[in-house]
């Protein structure tokens, strides 16, 4: 996996319309690896929130942090709408970035 250092806001989900986590990083590949391996501990490990369902790249970290804060303030339904606007079936986008698919563990494609 090639690591691309670029500011990014990302959303992880436990399952479609499940528990969401919104984060910001300068290295999405490294951060996804940390989440998936449980290195980060905390919320994402406790609630098994490891599937990348949306990400947005930015030119600088300041823009990315502002966007992360904006999305975190949104109502849950707005966040779901944002995800479903480009990923209606809640596919794990990390697979397209070179990661192996995660074990199902209650995850189903679609409703």
UniProtKB/TrEMBL annotation:
It comes from the Bacteria. Signal peptide: none annotated. Coiled coil: none annotated. SMART domains: GIYc. InterPro entries: GIY-YIG_endonuc (IPR000305), GIY-YIG_endonuc_sf (IPR035901), UPF0213_domain (IPR050190). Residues 5-81 form the GIY-YIG domain. Transmembrane segments: none annotated. Belongs to the UPF0213 family. This is GIY-YIG nuclease family protein. It comes from Qipengyuania benthica.
């Amino acid at each position: 996996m090639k690591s691309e250092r670029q500011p990014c806001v990302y959303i992880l989900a436990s399952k479609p319309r499940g528990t969401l986590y919104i984060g910001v990083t300068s290295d999405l590949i490294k951060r996804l690896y940390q989440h998936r391996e449980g290195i980060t501990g905390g919320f994402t490990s406790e609630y098994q929130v490891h599937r990348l369902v949306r990400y947005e790249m930015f030119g600088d970290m300041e823009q990315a942090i502002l966007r992360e804060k904006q999305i975190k303030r949104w109502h849950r339904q707005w966040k779901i709408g944002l995800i479903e606007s480009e990923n209606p079936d809640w596919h794990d986008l990390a697979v397209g970035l070179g990661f192996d698919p995660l074990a199902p563990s209650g995850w189903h494609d679609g409703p």
